[in-house]
């Protein structure tokens, strides 16, 4: 069969789906991966065939001056109040409405060429199955327009979309009475759907099924049809460094990785990096830190026991390590799970994922969230742009990731806001010296290995596609 996969043009969205695409290809299926034209070479580097959408010479929609900005904090909270959400539900709602709808809006716009190019390609190529990135809902429109079966790819995300759609459906009367739109996601998709005569319904917005790589206890409860799968870590291909051929002798090795995306939006890493390095400097360990110049900007002197390298595949590094300190991203989490090592997850105690800003930040590295900002591409600040939401100095998924790791006994939570250097160092020492953390990490790895591999779900995908033919 022919399979069309859509991905948002970022490594954090592409890498999680590469093992699924390979599994389908090696089973004899014809696979194409569609994304913005400027991302085509990156897709090709994974051994997959790209479909270039839009113009490679034009800015990606998320970096355009007219990109959709986050809604006002008052509007986000108005929804939460109308629905009577609990504090935990408010967190999930903010993640959906304030964070995830923005990237979803980038590639569903009918007034830009990317989404129409996708639909026209689907109509011409006639795929049997479309697998679409959670924040690339144009994939569902393309599937419906050409009559293909379609399902969503969670990738490295929680299913905030289905979870929030279900909350909206439960409280539709109260939301309408509050004068709020009852289905913001449908409103976002409708202009493109209308252009191609596609009806907007729950199946279009949530897919016929969802490929879910999250272990039980980490995923959100939803009524969607799920295809569970083991998340196989993939972090790109690179020559295996000679210094990684052997594990260090006489002392543990710790990896420090704080994510690929934050470094592009927050210069200085909120002061977290220097504090973590100070804590690590006081231990008899070897540290391999995958940090960019922006993340190291506030570090005056690198400790003697730290090797800083901007990029090395975690699939190569982590099997040589005794523990991982990281930002709470699901891709990094999964790499540690597969390696069977304990994790120290950076998480803060902020009550909300994104705090309303009472005034414009004083510096460009304050971590204000908005579209159109990326260091080295477009990072100009204005007072108007800076107003709105402040980033809480953590990854979007840090709290659920840290909670899962600690509940399984596979690691600890690190809070650079609340904990002193000495307290951080004590946590690091605990994870390295107490055998229970290694046992917990082995348990998490066993849970991961019990899930179906990408190869094992191919027959399920074939069956789901056949039902729609």
Automatic annotation (TrEMBL):
Keywords: Glycosyltransferase, Transferase
GO BP term (any one): antibiotic biosynthetic process
Gene Ontology molecular function: hexosyltransferase activity; UDP-glycosyltransferase activity
Glycosyltransferase in keyword set: yes
Domain Erythromycin biosynthesis protein CIII-like N-terminal residues, every copy: 22-259
Transferase recorded as keyword: yes
CDD domains with a match to the protein in the record: GT1_Gtf-like
Segments forming domain Erythromycin biosynthesis protein CIII-like C-terminal: 275-348, 402-464
Superkingdom to which the source organism belongs: Bacteria
Similarity-based family: Belongs to the glycosyltransferase 28 family.
Stated name of the protein: DUF1205 domain-containing protein
